[in-house]
């Protein structure tokens, strides 16, 4: 049997592929368009490994996906492929609509056609797992309970609206066509191979290169953080044992204000790689104009996943963030490569205040 992973050259997808092939011999067909966020270097350790087949393609390519599904006898699809950066969605929502909504729709159509043609036993075994975000639920006030799976959808950015639309399509394909779907809505991930436009890798890198550490507004926006490998183990568990048609929230019970996250990073860097002038990296913190419509607080109630499927994160925020900082210190060549070219010109155009 074989699984199809879409977006498997991105941050979470590449961690998932590495984790999957580290634990089983079941091959992976990895379909990724290789946008600015896709990076095959993340998968360099799989070079020559026949269990990993990479295909550069768009999730919107119905014919290609249908033929891949048939050719490899795929028994599960894990859909990571998406445009994923909120700031980019504010500057230019079009790609988010195309990939996250239209692309997901075409992918679902190809999967539906394939699934309809399977023999009954293979049909029963098949799953389509859609990887989504807690951002679809909107923003919480300080006193509100964390998001449960029953929380109303209230997406506030073009990114979260496009992910919400894809979640609804996935749900509809189950209710209308009987497609055996599973959906996971996860909180903010951090860890190895995280593209350095996102808060944690951006701040680690800016700290090391003597640049400002940009904090939006007052820095009191709260996010719930999960180490990426714990997200991978949750997806694996849901794929193994999740109930078809169900949604599982994934989170680490780690609510942190952005400013506290950056101060933690600075403290770890002060210890692992002190600044040559003896000052703290925290001196580089710089407040910048807040993101428009910035959600104040996300928090995930992961108790359904814990109770029903016995999943638990292996890392606390403290252990995971330390591993992450160490990983970036050990992989400076990877970072230098991704912060050149396309990424750099985009940042210069859109982040002149940083
Ligand atoms: P990412 O931006 O790092 O990776 C996305 C990958 O998808 C890239 O490799 C990119 O090349 C590929 N891709 C984009 N458009 C494509 C298309 N049309 N066809 C095929 N491939 C395409 O994103 P990520 O952070 O790894 O997130 C992966 C998934 O997890 C997304 O669906 C995201 O919404 C979801 N998610 C992310 C987080 C997080 O904190 N990063 C949290 C919860 C859920």
Summarize the structure.
With 354 residues, the chain is of the alpha/beta class. It is built from 13 helices and twelve strands.
Explain this structure:
With 354 residues, the protein is of the alpha/beta class. The chain has a domain of 239 residues: Rossmann fold (3-Layer(aba) Sandwich). The chain is built from 13 helices and twelve strands. The strands form three sheets. Strands 3-2-1-4-5-6-10 form a seven-stranded parallel beta sheet, sandwiched between helices. It has a three-stranded mixed beta sheet with strand order 7-9-11. The protein has a two-stranded parallel sheet with strand order 8-12. Helix 1 crosses helix 8, helix 2 crosses helix 4 and helix 4 packs parallel to helix 6. The chain is globular, with a radius of gyration of 20 Å. 45% of the residues are buried. The chain binds nicotinamide-adenine-dinucleotide. Nicotinamide-adenine-dinucleotide binds next to helix 1, helix 4, strand 5 and strand 7. The site of nicotinamide-adenine-dinucleotide has 31 residues, from helix 1, helix 4, strand 5 and strand 7.
Name of the CATH first level of the domain at 2-193 and 227-253 and 297-316: Alpha Beta
Shape label: globular
Total count of helical runs of at least 4 residues: 13
Helix content: 40-55%
Alpha-carbon Rg, integer:
20 Å
CATH-derived topology of the domain at 2-193 and 227-253 and 297-316? Rossmann fold
Strand order of the largest sheet: 3-2-1-4-5-6-10
The CATH architecture of the domain at 2-193 and 227-253 and 297-316 can be named as 3-Layer(aba) Sandwich
Number of strands: 12
Structural class: alpha/beta
Main β-sheet, in a few words? 7 strands, parallel
Bound molecules: nicotinamide-adenine-dinucleotide
End-to-end CA span: 48 Å
Order of helices and strands: EHEEHEHHHEHEEHEEHEEHEHHHH
